[in-house]
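dumping this here so i dont lose it
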């Protein structure tokens, strides 16, 4: 058997490595650097910045830790260089993994010649490849707003802001989703005055509303101005200043900034290949797939951001496993609905499974158990007590209603506070194994650790 994978992001390259491990010959085609958005302009560079931001915050708070005031000047060029070094290190790691004898990494831009042939065009010419199966993993691109001024020179996307040559004094972030808030939090720590403009009722529209409200307050305390229910109407450039005009509850308002970051989400890269010409069905969100990531053409699969199901690096990787298992006739127990997500703001937030609101909408009887970081010994020692943990558990359905989940089954977990992105993993393990409260209660947690916040919530 032979497989062609188009795109070497976390969807494509991880699938190629697994295929090779299983003895399958794979051609992986990449038009840019290996690692895709995640490694080159997404997860990794932003998290390198997050570390700098955390370090800077701690230096500012040195007196609170009893070590006196520490004077320092931020060398932003070094911050950028450190980020680039981190990316290069990981990229060379991926390149070396892809040098496996069963993997042929082809550099160039791919397009479908027909349903069985992929042509790769590069500086050295063009070449056709055929295989039994083709996996598309060509990712997504930044979206923009259809408003006057959105295409003004100097309006940044998440890609450009990673290589900005100075810290803007005033940064306006359009979009209070995960990417927008991460940059808002980072640049606030770097010293910018930050305004976030969000269209929806709350920041992080897909997250638990309780969590979103509290995280908004928390970011507000750090000086990040967040305007929700605000629709951007236009952007203008006056000299060196951008003026972002928006309407909030019927009133027109404006933010003046030195830089504007457009962070209104991402869309599947539907023009990355000639999908329609070869008959691959798409819809507004991306390439249409079934539960096995199979397109309408049975030997062609689409994984990761390109199918628009869940734009996360680990989602891309696990969808790749699902696709490969399906190709190879291997059964697995992967539940792609139990997909953890983290927001690397300060403090962090994370979520997995169903929210309380979602359960209400679906008529699922639940109870919510909560605990707070301020009562967690480790968080107090760290001086990071802002945050909570909320666990959503199936309760007894009202008379006449269907009991959709066994009473006590853990359905969701939502938290914000230090290291939420790590803590969520334990809840994820429990939810994916359909564990109940009593099963969780038997698990011993090390003391003093932040994971005890989960234990405290579970014990009510
Ligand atoms: C700023 C930012 C921060 C993020 N942070 C996180 C995070 O913390 N955690 C998380 O889980 N996710 C995060 N994401 C999302 C994550 O980066 C994506 O979900 C993930 O990269 C998707 O993986 P993928 O393999 O589907 O596509 P990609 O990583 O986009 O890879 C697609 C690859 O296909 C190549 N390609 C496209 N067309 C062709 C063609 N015709 N021929 C050959 N090659 C082609 C591209 O060059 C690219 O390398 C972040 C994204 C951004 C923008």
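and the seq i came up w/
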């Amino acid at each position: 058997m032979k497989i062609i994978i188009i795109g070497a992001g976390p969807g494509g390259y991880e699938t190629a490595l697994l295929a090779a491990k299983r003895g399958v010959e794979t051609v992986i085609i990449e038009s840019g650097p290996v690692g895709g958005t995640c490694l080159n302009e997404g997860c990794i560079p932003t998290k390198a910045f997050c570390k700098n931001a955390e370090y800077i915050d701690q230096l500012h708070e040195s007196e609170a830790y009893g070590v006196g005031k520490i004077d320092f000047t931020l060398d932003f060029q070094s911050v950028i260089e450190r980020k680039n070094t981190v990316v290069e290190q990981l990229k060379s790691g991926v390149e070396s993994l892809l040098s496996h004898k069963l993997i042929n990494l082809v550099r160039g831009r791919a397009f479908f010649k027909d349903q069985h042939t992929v042509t790769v065009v590069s500086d050295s010419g063009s070449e056709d490849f055929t295989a039994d199966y083709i996996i598309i993993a060509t990712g997504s691109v930044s979206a923009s707003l259809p408003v006057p001024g959105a295409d003004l020179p100097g309006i940044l996307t998440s890609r450009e802001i990673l290589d900005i040559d100075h810290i803007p004094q005033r940064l306006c972030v359009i979009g209070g989703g995960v990417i927008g808030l991460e940059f808002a939090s980072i640049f606030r720590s770097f010293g910018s005055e930050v305004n976030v403009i969000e269209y929806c009722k709350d920041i992080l529209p897909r997250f638990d509303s309780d969590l979103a409200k509290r995280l908004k307050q928390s970011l507000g305390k750090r000086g990040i101005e967040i305007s929700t229910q605000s629709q951007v109407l236009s952007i203008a450039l006056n000299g060196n200043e951008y003026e972002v005009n928006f309407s909030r509850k019927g009133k027109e308002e404006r933010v003046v900034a030195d830089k504007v970051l457009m962070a209104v989400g991402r869309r599947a890269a539907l023009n990355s290949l000639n999908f329609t010409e070869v008959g691959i069905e798409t819809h507004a969100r991306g390439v249409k797939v079934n539960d096995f990531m199979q397109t309408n053409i049975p030997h062609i699969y689409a994984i990761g951001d390109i199918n628009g199901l869940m734009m996360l690096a680990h989602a891309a990787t696990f969808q790749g496993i699902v696709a490969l298992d399906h190709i190879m006739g291997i059964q697995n127990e992967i539940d792609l609905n139990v997909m953890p997500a983290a927001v690397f703001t300060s403090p962090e937030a994370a979520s997995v499974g169903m929210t309380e609101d979602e359960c209400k909408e679906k008529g699922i009887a639940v109870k919510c158990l909560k605990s707070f970081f301020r009562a967690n010994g480790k968080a107090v020692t760290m001086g990071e007590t802002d945050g909570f943990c909320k666990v959503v558990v199936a309760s007894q359905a009202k008379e006449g209603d269907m009991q959709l989940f066994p009473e006590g089954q853990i359905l969701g977990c939502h938290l914000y506070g230090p290291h939420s992105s790590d803590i969520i993993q334990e809840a994820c393990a429990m939810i994916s194994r359909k564990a109940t409260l009593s099963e969780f209660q038997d698990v011993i947690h090390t003391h003093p650790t932040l994971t005890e916040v989960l234990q405290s919530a579970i014990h009510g």
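The longest helix spans residues 76-97.
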